[in-house]
Amino acid sequence: AVGNLENRPGRRGTWAGYNTEGFGLIELTTFAEDIGAVPILAVYAGYSLDGKAVPQDQLQPFIDEVVKELDFLTASANDNRMAALRKQLGRSEPFDIRYVEIGNEDWLGAAINTYDYRWTTFYNVLSKRYPNITFIATTAKTINYPPAVDDHFYQVPLFFIENFRRYENVPRSGPRVLIGEFAVINDDDSQITNPFGPGRLAYPSIKSAVAESVFRIGFERNSDIIFGGCYAPILQNIDNTQWTPSFIVFNTTSVVKSTSYLAQKMFGENLGNVILYSAATNNTITHRSVEKGQEGDGKLGNLYFIATKRTNDNTLIVKLVNVDPTDILINAQIQGSTTSSTGVAYILTAGSGVDPSTVHNTMLNPNAASITEQSVSARNGTWSITVPSWSVVVVTLTL
């Protein structure tokens, strides 16, 4: 929706409820700019929830609508009618649109049967007109070599923990990957075959945030092929909703930052641009015996980890996730380093002896969980920290 708010009639929601369309296209893209996010647009690709697909020879009007939308957002206002409308509405400069997804979850139901011709028809037109945009397929099962594909996962904690290495063996010659939607929606691991069933979470818990962080370490370890991961949904009006749990919950007076938000905040604010070799050892595993993709590489027992470096300020960033019921003492050595410096460890945990599935940030108790900090000191390249049970820890040290 674009234009004056009073001229937007609204419509019945696609999934449930009602869309006022007060938060329209220009509001969404401006909001993304304001919070420093990269927008990923999804466009209708000729399939509806009633199970009907638009025949291939009737797709052109829908492609034309996408062209209007993308011209509105990206074209110069000097020589394009839709971009001139954008300027008329108060935005002269084009928006920075890098990613557009064609369709949504076309692996569901009968959608898979027609996605090959729908994707191809849309992609062939749009990729020529917008060569600087990466177009994302919703599935690669029936199409050949899309530039990128979007994976969605709503599951229990055990699923995300067990899928830590999911993307390590994905062929690097294939499409890049966006995990466009992921969340623990049920803390009961016995519901892994039916996560939408009994036990559905109202709010994310410490347990769910920790399990998601294991999966998120996998994103970073495979960032040569994974270009993004998005918790979903992001925003939830607690007084008018049809889905739980959500990342940030609000009403007219309050905002609740969930445990999942806190964990992702720790990761997002501490990003390295170079992945460093790291290995973990114990009494039976030595550094020399650690092989890629095996125990000691990225995980040791119930401890998961990644080490990166932020080169602009020479900072070591180590992310540690413990899914064990007991604390784990880490003694770390920075290979070849004699560095002595003091850094910070950011910690998210339920606390000693507390069941992590019982701790949620809610409207009634918005600060049940919070990020704490403690000092970490390196001496001659060695440092140590205790990683609490069911916790997320991010350590930063100047090299």
Q: Brief description of this entry?
A:
Belongs to the glycosyl hydrolase 51 family. With 399 residues, the chain is an alpha/beta fold. The protein folds into two domains: 264 residues, Glycosidases (TIM Barrel, Alpha-Beta Barrel), CATH 3.20.20.80; 125 residues, Sandwich (Immunoglobulin-like).
Uncertain parts:
none
Tell me, briefly, the overall form. Answer: globular
The assigned structural class equals alpha/beta
The number of distinct structural domains comes to 2
Supply the number of helical segments: 7
User: What is the chain-wise order of helices and strands?
Assistant: EEHEHHEHEEHEHEEEEHEEEEEEEEE
Oligomer: single chain
Largest sheet: 7 strands, antiparallel
Rounded mean pLDDT is 95
Descriptive keywords:
alpha/beta, 6-stranded parallel sheet, single chain, 399 residues, 7 helices, GH, Immunoglobulin-like, 2 domains, non-reducing end alpha-L-arabinofuranosidase, glycoprotein, 7-stranded antiparallel sheet, TIM Barrel
Explain the overall architecture.
- The structure is a single chain.
- This protein is of the alpha/beta class.
- Helices cover 20% and strands 26% of the residues.
- The strands form five sheets. Strands 12, 13, 14, 15, 17, 18 and 20 form a seven-stranded antiparallel beta sheet that branches.
- Helix 2 (60-74) packs across helix 3 and helix 6 (206-221) runs parallel beside helix 7.
- The protein is globular, with a radius of gyration of 23 Å.
- Its EC number is 3.2.1.55.
